[in-house]
Amino acid sequence: MARKATRHTIGTVTIYQRDRHWHASYTANGVRTRQALKVTNLKVAQQKAREIADMIERGEYVTLEDRREQRNMTFGKFVTEFKDKHKGWGNTTWRGVKGIIKQYEDEWGHLPLSAINTRMVESFITRCIDCDGITNATANRRLACLKTIFKMAKRWGLLVHNPAERIKTMKEEPKVPRALSESETHLFLSELPDYAQVLATVAIDTGMRKSELYRLQWQDIDFERRLITVRNSKNNTFRVIPMTNRVYDTLQAQRQKGIIPYVLVGKDGNPEQSVRDVLSTVGKKVGIGHVHLHMLRHTFATFLRERGVALDRIMELLGHKTMVMTLRYAKSSPTQLWDAIESLNTPLPTRQTQQG
What we know:
Layout: E1 7-10, E2 13-18, E3 21-28, E4 31-36, H1 42-58, H2 64-69, H3 75-85, H4 91-108, H5 118-132, H6 136-155, H7 182-191, H8 194-206, H9 210-215, E5 221-222, E6 227-230, E7 239-242, H10 245-255, H11 271-285, H12 293-306, H13 311-318, H14 323-332, H15 335-342
Antiparallel strand pairs: 1-2, 2-3, 3-4, 5-6, 6-7
Helix pairs in contact: 5-6, 8-10, 8-11, 8-12, 12-14, 13-14
């Protein structure tokens, strides 16, 4: 009598052994499919079945026929689909990775997606460092972009493994954020034209990112409670920033101009183009050097730290997800460390021995 085949169920997927190889049986998109997993190890077969079950649950598993048709999809063709369908990046990120993706298309666009392996990815990153002279930080950004592309290919059922997944990022040299001093801030603001002065004032006193400043609308301003709500931030969350007196007065005056719906506009109605150049020009004029909006964000955080504000409060106001980025301001402006060292200049009180 023939022995009954061993079966294991993982979610909605059943695996069974035929001869020495494992096979999977499942229903996806209303189609019953039997698929050879081409492995003899039970644990590997269970892992593949778990991946299939997860994709079916998310509604992302295509039929076996579709998988056969897409088996030879080129990297270039997939990237075109990725650009159209991937919703995990905001407009700012897409602008930042546009050139990176173009490099990958030039390198591998003609190759089948499944033909790209870990060695090829590591070799390409190494070549960029050696030939283009990019920093480790830039190399890490390029690697992160590629990891996301392959992650989505795997998630959409076009790859079994992500060839970039296990490549480790390189150690980056920490940069000390450049911030304006109190005197530089007053001088810089006094020389700016009105439209740029409004935006710079809000940036210095709120620490908002460039994209957050440009998207700020009047519906986000609560003058009664003196609060600014930052929506659609980099981390896909919102946060609330109380207004300083200077920001409150600046925005009240801005509201009288009748500009809607956005709060901050440039000379030509486009703050990104007209403000960027004037910040740099005025910075050089007053002897500070090149000034950009992100430097004003650094200035906000540094001013808070110099006044003894706790790092967790600074992290919340800046909208950082972790403390790693915020800790830079503790190192660049060690005001509280001076207070700690100063305590050593004061001798401890002498203990007096009580005599009976």
